């Protein structure tokens, strides 16, 4: 069934409404590891997952800055739900970069019908995160056979299509093989057991002799042969998730302190303060946290605009500026999400640590998601730029 094509004015309101609705069950879903099947269906039906389909193919073609704010608002409600469609947007973007007109027409049409893309990219046991063993081999009749195993396959379990990053023949360049979720030889295992982001179903995808037509293969390596914002866009959405976690942790801390916390005895005895929220040490702590979260949100918004500017006028300088802006946002949102979700307990007191409240999910989610790409390397690239004017490396993680 076709999904609505949302305008730039509608998209943020819809994202805020869904984020608020998803927030109501987030703690319980996390505690019991209940996958958000119904919520994801609602997200698909809303039209939010189709907002980057180009206007030429019937979509809204909204810019990166708008998508980042959608992710932030969804993550404010439930960061697991926000993370599940991350790869969906990344691979819609991959089609914009390298899909043929026929492939774009077909797959963009699928998205406008509410279909979801998953992800089978990372592999466990390789030397590093950008090394892959999964391979497409020719079957002798013009088609291909896909074999391999992928880990951290967020979104695959509940997807309609799984884009698989693989070599084209042995040691050939990287391509994306588009396979249907329930195709013969595709097995998706719900074995994700991380301490945070518990309901993303980021498990294993096994591919055994999966038949792939030549019309379901798109080049990946060509994206990086010239200036691109592919990596910056993907990293921008990660930053938005962390910004949402930071704001949610701060909001829950404020709610707890103003409604449940008791004042420290010394504040009562020395200052006559009978309300914990009036303790000057608590007010100072909240001011510091608000400053950190606002700074992260501002850097996120600027990073989105930098990607938009590069997309409008793409060259090495604008692409590099976008990557640096996103690197700053990722470093800041990493810090803010970890600080807010940790100091939540410092300002709220002992009772906030009760397992039944599940306030610790904010820290677990932040700590787990921020491990995706080390913030230290983002800062290192910023340092090289500040010292030497050196642009960051040209790959999909910047």
TrEMBL record:
Does this UniProt record's set of keywords contain Oxidoreductase?
yes
- Please give one Pfam family short name: Acyl-CoA_dh_2
Where does the Acyl-CoA dehydrogenase C-terminal domain lie?
236-372
Q: What family name appears in the similarity comment? A: Belongs to the HpaH/HsaA monooxygenase family.
**Residue intervals of the Acyl-CoA dehydrogenase/oxidase N-terminal domain:** 18-114
Annotated InterPro entries: Acyl-CoA_dehydrogenase (IPR050741), Acyl-CoA_DH_C (IPR013107), AcylCoA_DH/ox_N (IPR013786), S04_starv_induced_SfnB (IPR023922)
Name of protein: SfnB family sulfur acquisition oxidoreductase
Q: Which domain of life is it from?
A: Bacteria
Oxidoreductase in keyword set: yes
User: Which keywords does UniProt give here?
Assistant: Oxidoreductase
Taxonomic source organism:
Nocardioides daeguensis
């Amino acid at each position: 069934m076709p999904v609505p094509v949302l305008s730039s004015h509608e998209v943020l309101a819809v994202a805020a409404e869904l984020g608020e609705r998803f927030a109501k069950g987030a703690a319980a879903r996390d505690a019991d590891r209940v996958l958000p099947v119904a919520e994801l269906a609602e997200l698909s039906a809303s039209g939010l997952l189709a907002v980057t389909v180009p206007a030429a193919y019937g979509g809204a073609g909204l810019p990166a800055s708008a998508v980042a704010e959608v992710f932030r608002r969804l993550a404010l409600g439930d960061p697991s739900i926000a993370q599940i469609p991350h790869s969906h947007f990344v691979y819609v973007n991959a089609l914009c970069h390298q899909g043929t007109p026929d492939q774009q027409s077909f797959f963009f049409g699928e998205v406008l019908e509410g279909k979801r893309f998953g992800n089978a990219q990372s592999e466990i046991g390789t030397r590093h995160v950008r090394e892959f063993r999964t391979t497409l081999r020719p079957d002798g009749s013009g088609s291909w056979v896909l074999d391999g195993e992928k880990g951290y396959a967020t979104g695959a379990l509940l997807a309609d299509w799984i884009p698989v990053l693989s070599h084209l023949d042995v040691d050939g360049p990287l391509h994306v093989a588009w396979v249907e979720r329930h195709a013969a030889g595709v097995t998706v295992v719900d074995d994700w057991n991380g301490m945070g982001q518990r309901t993303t179903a980021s498990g294993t995808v096994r591919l055994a002799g999966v038949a792939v037509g030549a019309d379901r293969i798109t080049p990946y390596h060509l994206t990086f042969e010239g200036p691109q914002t592919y990596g910056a866009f993907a990293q921008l959405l990660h930053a938005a998730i962390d910004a949402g976690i930071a704001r949610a942790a701060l909001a829950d801390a404020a709610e707890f302190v103003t409604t449940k916390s008791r004042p420290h005895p010394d504040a009562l005895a020395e200052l006559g303060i009978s309300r914990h929220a009036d303790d000057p040490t608590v007010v100072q702590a909240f001011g510091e946290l608000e400053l950190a979260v606002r700074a992260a949100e501002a850097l996120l918004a600027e990073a989105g605009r930098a990607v938009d500017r590069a997309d409008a006028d793409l060259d090495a300088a604008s692409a590099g500026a976008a990557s640096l802006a996103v690197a700053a946002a990722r470093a800041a949102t990493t810090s803010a999400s970890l600080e807010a979700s940790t100091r939540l307990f410092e300002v709220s007191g002992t009772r906030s640590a009760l397992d039944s409240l599940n306030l610790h999910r904010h820290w677990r989610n932040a700590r787990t998601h921020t491990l995706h790409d080390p913030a230290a390397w983002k800062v290192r690239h910023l340092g090289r730029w500040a010292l030497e004017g050196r642009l960051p490396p040209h790959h999909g993680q910047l």
